[in-house]
């Protein structure tokens, strides 16, 4: 009888202990699912990809062309096209400057510096062709006349009928790719560069020799901005992106819009794919981040690229290929000539020039 009493006391204790352990175990199992709900969405990039889009493709019709997104299509006219001479020389890069309409003086400074054959061997030997792309609003008759005269004088400006605004920047960048693909088929790489970039194009030749740049595989080249940047959902922000167009909480890796290059096949793929995405006005993210990730196009980091003015100090002797800066025209010219002289001294070269050519 005493043994039975002991069992009757122990049994409820054992049952309660077993129930308590089971309860704690079930609580631990639930914890990861709660954390997963709080974590960023996985594989969310494709959520904005409209595979069944019936929009037409971005395409060139000759004197006119269309840039097409899933929700917006815009038609444009090539108002002036420079002559692209056929050559038997090795033609690697078509570099096009996204230039503001009224930047007459800046264009002349660029013609005197890195676009000048006397200052850039890669331009002199025909491996790189440099042009400007300028937008003209239909109502700007006086400005149109001046830019047309400039284009005919120098033969290096692509003119398009468009409002030259930040909102149109994504279209401008796509126009650069479209011109390269349809109007200059001999170039293996198409580059876009902003007009406030200090640029030493001869240093690209070393990257070719080292295999860092290769025009054969499908690739994008530039300064890689790592994945994880927050997305602006405030409609008043110039970088606003609606969740319907891109539902991720952060951006994928992309290339800084100051300067990037696409192999010909990569540019063709990007142009064909715009119909599958709604318009987003964050140009570099959409082209080199979201669409590149959609298509599986690798983005490759280039050395010696600097995104911010403070990256280079006044007496800094950093080796520069491209640097985003706010220098006015004469300081820009002086900095370039000083950097060119240093580069040529290191290479055992001496020739420099400030004349156009």
UniProtKB/TrEMBL annotation:
GO terms for molecular function: glycosyltransferase activity; hexosyltransferase activity. Pfam families: Galactosyl_T. It is found in: Golgi apparatus membrane. One of its GO terms (cellular component) is Golgi membrane. It is an enzyme of class 2 (transferase). The keyword Iron does not apply. One of its GO terms (biological process) is protein O-linked glycosylation. It comes from the Eukaryota. The keyword Transmembrane applies. It is a single-pass type II membrane protein. InterPro entries: Glyco_trans_31. This is Hexosyltransferase. It comes from Caenorhabditis elegans.
């Amino acid at each position: 009888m005493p043994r039975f009493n002991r069992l009757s006391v122990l049994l409820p204790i054992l049952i309660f202990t077993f129930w308590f352990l089971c309860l704690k175990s079930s609580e631990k199992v639930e914890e990861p699912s709660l954390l997963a709900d709080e974590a960023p969405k996985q594989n969310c990039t494709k959520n904005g990809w409209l595979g069944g889009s019936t929009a037409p493709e971005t395409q060139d019709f000759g004197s006119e062309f269309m840039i097409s997104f899933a929700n917006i299509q815009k038609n444009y006219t090539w108002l002036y096209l420079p002559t692209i001479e056929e050559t038997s020389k090795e033609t690697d890069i078509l570099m096009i400057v996204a230039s503001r309409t009224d930047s007459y003086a800046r264009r002349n400074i660029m013609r005197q510096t890195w676009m000048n054959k006397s200052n850039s061997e890669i331009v002199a030997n025909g491996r790189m062709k440099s042009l400007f792309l300028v937008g003209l609003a239909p109502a700007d008759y006086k400005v149109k006349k001046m830019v047309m005269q400039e284009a005919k004088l120098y033969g290096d400006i692509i003119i398009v009928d468009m409002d030259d605004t930040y909102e149109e920047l994504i279209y401008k960048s796509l126009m650069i790719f479209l011109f390269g693909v349809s109007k200059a088929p001999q170039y293996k790489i198409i580059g876009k560069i902003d007009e406030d970039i200090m640029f030493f194009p001869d240093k690209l030749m070393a990257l070719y020799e080292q295999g860092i740049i290769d025009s054969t595989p499908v690739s994008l080249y530039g300064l890689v901005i790592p994945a994880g940047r927050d997305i602006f959902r405030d409609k008043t922000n110039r970088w606003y992106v609606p969740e319907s167009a891109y539902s991720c909480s952060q951006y994928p890796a992309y290339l800084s819009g100051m300067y990037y290059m696409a192999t010909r096949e990569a540019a063709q793929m990007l142009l064909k794919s715009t119909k599958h995405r709604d318009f987003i006005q964050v140009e570099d993210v959409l082209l080199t981040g979201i669409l590149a990730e959609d298509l599986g196009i690798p983005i490759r980091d280039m050395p010696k690229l600097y995104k911010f003015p403070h990256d280079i100090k006044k007496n800094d002797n950093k080796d520069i290929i491209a640097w985003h800066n706010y220098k006015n025209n004469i300081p820009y010219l002086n900095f370039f000539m000083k950097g060119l002289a240093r580069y040529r001294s290191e290479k055992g070269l001496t020739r420099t020039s400030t004349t156009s050519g």
